[in-house]
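A reminder from the course coordinator: this example appears on the midterm review sheet, so study it carefully.

Given structure:
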């Protein structure tokens, strides 16, 4: 399918969109966050619930965002202005743009570690004990953060076609190929079987309210939902493309890659005799010691960190794109200036994040939790934006589509390019009206009551 020539950029083909949207979805959320959250939440049973969440919540909300994006051909703010002119709903769009910049600021700090560890693995300098010192090293944290930010905004400055499309088309297949290689390496390690068992055989006695809540939070974060990233990406889709199959492919890609990441990590962990509950440091700390004990370990490490930086880059690109599209569409700024503003604001917010892992005592111990523990600036950002704002955003989007824009308008949009969707629309309505809002409200209430973060 060829692009319809319009002043607004458009994906050159359906497959280009799928690669770019899957590039947004697949990131540190899949390869770093999914395995460690799975490890902390009991393994197989969590994986089972996560799959349910993707089907019952993730896919319906994905379809919602894509239809809003294509109907309006706008960024999240513009989408509300076009679909409900003059209504206060535009506030939800602003919330999405701000959430994108806020997530970008701390996500890029962690993404910076992937470049640092790529360089360390090339230099054969992988010392698991050095991780704590590394994240507390101010010049290194700021350098890698800024480097990653520069790479992300550089791609977006090239425009939808020239930037995002080119990079994601080439890199996604490379990513999958590299992961297959790593799985083969991991599952053939001695002692890998117990890791596979932990990961794949559900033990439902480990399921609690917490397991559900973590599965839901992880689902939204991983699919890039709740802040309009998929509204923005949907705005570049051609009218005769099939949103249902495009959205389904993106969910499928994202889920397969998360599952593959688990297949790399759990067998390797079991083989090294390490516990799966290592948490935040699972990838960057435990795996490093693992690479050191593996034949060809430094080679495997290079592949792994290369792959992780690619995945993170295609996600940061989408985070930059949301705010950029807003500034270009709504404020009539040239793309170059828009990208510069996004980079500037992100740098200002990201530096305290980069300092909050030991570099600065103030930012590391910003919020006392009362039990002798503290929340860092980065931790607060993740809690407020990565968890609360995304969940609240998804909830408000469901309410908007059901009660304001109306499901019938959304179904009409989806049916252009997929006439058969009418028959399935009732299931979609149930998901948007009941299943997703109730489940999301449950997470928000739980998080407010317990004051916990999902990460
Ligand atoms: N989905 C990305 C990941 O799993 O790493 C993170 C993300 C990107 C969240 C874009 C939200 C977003 F809009």
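Designed residues:
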């Amino acid at each position: 399918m060829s692009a319809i020539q319009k002043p607004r950029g458009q994906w050159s083909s359906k497959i280009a969109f799928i690669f770019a949207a899957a590039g947004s979805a697949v990131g540190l959320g899949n390869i770093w966050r999914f395995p460690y959250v799975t490890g902390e939440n009991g393994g197989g049973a969590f994986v089972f619930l996560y799959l349910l969440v993707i089907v019952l919540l993730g896919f319906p909300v994905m379809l919602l965002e894509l239809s809003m994006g294509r109907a309006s051909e706008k960024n999240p703010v513009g989408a509300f202005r076009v679909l409900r002119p003059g209504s206060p709903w535009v506030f939800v769009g602003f919330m999405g743009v701000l959430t994108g910049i806020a997530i970008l600021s701390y996500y890029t700090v962690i993404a910076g570690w992937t470049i640092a560890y790529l360089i360390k693995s090339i230099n054969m300098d992988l010392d698991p004990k050095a991780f704590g010192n590394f994240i507390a090293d101010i010049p290194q944290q700021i350098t890698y953060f800024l480097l990653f930010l520069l790479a992300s905004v550089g791609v977006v400055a090239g425009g939808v076609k020239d930037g995002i499309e080119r990079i994601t088309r080439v890199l996604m297949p490379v990513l999958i190929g590299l992961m297959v290689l790593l799985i083969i390496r991991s599952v053939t390690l001695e002692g890998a079987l117990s890791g596979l068992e932990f990961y794949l055989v559900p033990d439902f006695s480990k399921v609690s309210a917490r397991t559900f809540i973590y599965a839901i939070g992880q689902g939204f974060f991983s699919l890039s939902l709740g802040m309009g990233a998929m509204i923005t990406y949907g705005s570049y889709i051609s009218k005769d493309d099939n949103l249902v199959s495009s959205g389904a492919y993106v969910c499928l890609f994202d889920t397969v890659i998360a599952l593959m990441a688990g297949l790399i990590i759990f067998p390797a962990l079991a083989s090294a005799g390490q516990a799966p509950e290592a948490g935040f440091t699972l990838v960057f700390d435990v795996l490093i010691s693992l690479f050191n004990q593996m034949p060809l370990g430094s080679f495997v490490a290079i592949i792994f960190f290369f792959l992780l930086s690619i995945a993170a880059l295609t996600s940061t690109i989408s985070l930059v794109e949301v705010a950029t599209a807003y500034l270009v569409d709504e404020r009539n700024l040239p793309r170059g200036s828009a990208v510069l503003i996004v980079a500037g604001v992100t740098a200002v917010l990201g530096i305290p994040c980069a300092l909050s892992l030991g570099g600065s005592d103030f930012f590391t111990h910003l919020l006392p939790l009362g039990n002798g523990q503290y929340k860092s600036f980065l931790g607060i950002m993740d809690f407020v934006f990565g968890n609360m704002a995304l969940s609240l955003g998804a909830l408000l989007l469901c309410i908007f589509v059901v009660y304001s824009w109306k499901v019938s308008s959304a179904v009409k949009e989806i049916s252009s390019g997929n006439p058969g969707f009418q028959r399935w629309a009732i299931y979609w309505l149930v998901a948007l009206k009941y299943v997703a809002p109730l489940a999301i409200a449950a997470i928000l209430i739980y998080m407010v009551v317990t004051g916990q973060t999902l990460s």
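Confidence is low (pLDDT under 50) at residues 1-6. The pocket of 4-fluoro-L-phenylalanine is lined by residues 24-25, 27-30, 100, 103, 221-222, 224, 227, 229, 315, 318-319 (CB under 6 Å).
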